[in-house]
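Checklist before submission:
- one chain only
- standard amino acids only
- sequence pasted in full

Submission:
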Amino acid sequence: MMPTRRSIVLALVAAALAPPAVAGEGLRALEAFLANVQQGRASFTQTVTAPGRDGQPPRVRTSRGEFSFLRPDRFRFHYTHPFEQDIVADGQTLWLHDPDLNQVTARRQAEALAHTPAALLAAGADLRALRQAFELREGEPREGLHWVEATPTSRDGAIQRIAVGFRDGRLEVLEVLDGFGQRSVLRFGPLQTAGVTAAQFRFQPPPGVEVVRP
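Returned file contents:
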């Protein structure tokens, strides 16, 4: 089984909606984002809250890094704090590089990402493509954001639901509740929408690293 943060990211960056008769602000913002933003990069802060056990309080972990993407099928999460880690999708393979373990895990991208939040940024250019993997609906406004709530059509238990928050049409927050009751919240900094190239998503395992292909 992959480490928790990896599964959250994979289970964490698409959304889903059983569409209402009239699309709300959140759905319109998501549709415009898919159609108009073809590339981007932004810093992020990720907070993961795990349920407490045996009467203990919830456990909270925070990490930071930079996220970049290039439609239709490339993205990278580069974690810098509290330790370094890379999650890279190059269009064919999803690479997970953990320098501390001196290990790289390589999976077929199409199989690894189909029903995950990553599909929001790495999949097709419209809501129709997302509805193949998610049920989508308009969420209630909160925190000054318009929300889209997504439920994966696959009931494998990895992800219970996803919420994507937009402010004035800008992607700002991604929330994920997984099958273990863990809640992960990614808050993105200002998105830069130019200067991203395909070369930035090429990944070569470093010399001497163990490569695992499940």
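Reviewer check: Confidence is low (pLDDT under 50) at residues 14-22.
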